[in-house]
Amino acid sequence: xxxxxxxxxxxxxxxxxxxxxxxxxxxxxxxxxxxxxxxxxxxxxxxxxxxxxxxxxxxxxxxxxxxxxxxxxxxxxxxxxxxxxxxxxxxxxxxxxxxxxxxxxxxxxxxxxxxxxxxxxxxxxxxxxxxxxxxxxxxxxxxxxxxxxxxxxxxxxxxxxxxxxxxxxxxxxxxxxxxxxxxxxxxxxxxxxxxxxxxxxxxxxxxxxxxxxxxxxxxxxxxxxxxxxx
Length: 230
Fold this sequence. Notes:
By secondary structure, the chain is an alpha+beta fold. It folds into two domains: 2-104, Threonyl-tRNA Synthetase, Chain A, domain 2; 136-211, Translation Initiation Factor Eif1. Helices cover 22% and strands 27% of the residues. The protein is built from four helices and eleven strands. A hairpin with a 4-residue loop joins β10 (194-200) and β11 (205-211).
């Protein structure tokens, strides 16, 4: 396993410069992907303390672990997926303050589709999860969101819901590593209500903004350029 310190000048006028020595366990295209990932994440506020670990001892796959990554949105995560079709999974561990990207090595293209999440709508939200501040009109979809998150973990977590005029702020902490693609499935399923998805690594929290039922839906489309690493 190799470790690198990433030194970044936090200035809007300076583009991140990333130079890594060629890793003996990676093909040039895989090394370029590592560099591109660092460039994308290093452009985010709060990335100056981030460190990188590359693990490549396995014959068919390698992993990139970013330690102390900045606060990231689901859009930021999806941008990484677009950069490499060989990505197996992205795991966000807000409790341990790490982001791990696992991908197949060069010429190890997978013909299998990524696993999709399972609906967990039949799970019962434990009574110690306080929903007393949630309006009756909103309780069904907020319970559904919590059910799906509970279903993808093996342990219960801490949740806090703060009501606002237009939405609810759901903050989740003390949670195990999250599969980002499964989170994307949940957001897609409840896209009429979830307006923001944030992995707040510095604060050790996973945060969702959930629209109130009586608030008008605003469609905001963020067009992102697809980047291919060859």
